[in-house]
Design brief:
Elements: H1 6-35, H2 37-40, E1 77-82, E2 88-94, E3 99-104, H3 113-128, E4 137-142, H4 147-154, E5 195-198, E6 201-204, H5 213-224, E7 227-235, E8 239-242, H6 251-264, E9 267-269, H7 281-287, E10 292-297, H8 305-320
């Protein structure tokens, strides 16, 4: 008789399934604990306090960039223009009165380099002696009108030591002109000519009156300011000369010439007539009805400050009245 084994087989299968299920359950549980961060950490979990919402009333939503504060303006000096060679032409101001007096040196750059030094001497004096300027006067000093020419001889466009200048006067001649090789004292609109002369040497007066940026800078500054009088230093003749653009000498110009000459010890002269002068800056001042004088130092190497200090003081006193 054949035995029926179906029942035992089913029982075995059920037992095996139960065993497999238990093993899978146990294995999965241990696997979970092995991979869980909480299972490997011994540090208790801190309670997290919710962050309060940020108040929109205290947070700026503007995206406009904050502009930096403008740099303070130095009212003690003004760059009035650039030279043909790209060098700054700077005017320095002292006092704040209504009557502005203009003092100019270095129009012939490195050739008349001592005229720049006398202007710097004057600046030093005014900085140390502000009370020398009358209350109703403003003094403007342009120590170097031709920085190109000064640099060609001294290597500097500003203040320099006299020891930097070649001893041979012939070596300084190149410094008379700007970077365009123009004699700036032949470039102003008073009897201007393209072909001028210096002593017996032909020089360029430029392509037109005020063709040079240095002359334009003076013109623009004068037209934008009420200039009461002007003193321009040259070298070398040891004299003070009036200005005149063939319209007669202004009465104030005559008085300034006399005062400066008497105070400084230089000779007093009605006109510079050693040779033909065309396009002269001081004579252009006269054309603009500005009292102006040319002060020619005695040499090409000495600023002669003591003499000029006395002359400057006489001019300041004249305009204080």
């Amino acid at each position: 008789m054949q035995k029926n084994i179906t029942g035992p087989v089913i029982t075995v299968i059920v037992v095996l399934v139960l065993i497999v299920g238990v093993v899978a359950l146990v294995t999965g549980k241990f696997s979970y604990f092995a991979s869980s961060p909480e299972a490997t950490s011994t540090t208790p979990i801190a309670q997290v306090t919710p962050t309060p919402p940020v108040s929109t009333s205290t947070v700026s939503t503007s995206t406009t960039p904050v502009e930096p504060a403008p740099a303070p303006v130095d009212e003690s000096k003004t760059v009035i223009g650039m030279s043909a060679g790209g060098n700054a032409i700077t005017a320095y101001h002292y006092g704040d009165g209504q009557k502005e007096l203009l003092f100019i040196g270095g129009i012939h750059g490195g050739y008349s380099w001592n005229t720049a030094l006398v202007a710097y001497e004057m600046m030093d004096y005014l900085e140390a002696n502000g009370n020398a300027i009358p209350d109703n006067v403003k003094v403007t000093v342009i120590p170097v009108l031709n920085p190109d020419g000064l640099k060609a001889v001294t290597g500097s466009t500003g203040r320099f030591a006299a020891s930097a200048v070649p001893k041979d006067q012939k070596a300084t001649v190149k410094g008379r002109f700007n970077a365009n090789n123009v004699d700036l004292n032949r470039n102003f609109d008073c009897e201007w000519k393209s072909n001028g002369v210096w002593q017996d040497t032909p020089v360029s007066g430029g392509g037109a009156a005020f063709s040079e940026p240095e002359a334009k800078a003076i013109k623009t500054y004068v037209e934008g300011n009420d200039i009461a009088g002007a003193v321009v230093w040259y070298s070398a003749a040891g004299g003070v000369y009036t200005s005149n653009c063939r319209t007669g000498v202004l009465s104030q110009t005559k008085e300034l010439t006399e005062l400066y000459a008497k105070a400084s010890g230089y000779s007093e002269n009605a006109e510079f007539d050693f040779y033909e002068i065309t396009g002269d800056m001081v004579n252009w001042f006269a054309r603009e009805n500005i009292p102006a004088i040319s002060v020619l130092l005695s040499t090409h190497s000495d600023p002669e400050w003591s003499s000029n200090k006395a002359g400057v003081a006489a001019v300041l006193k004249y305009y204080a009245e």
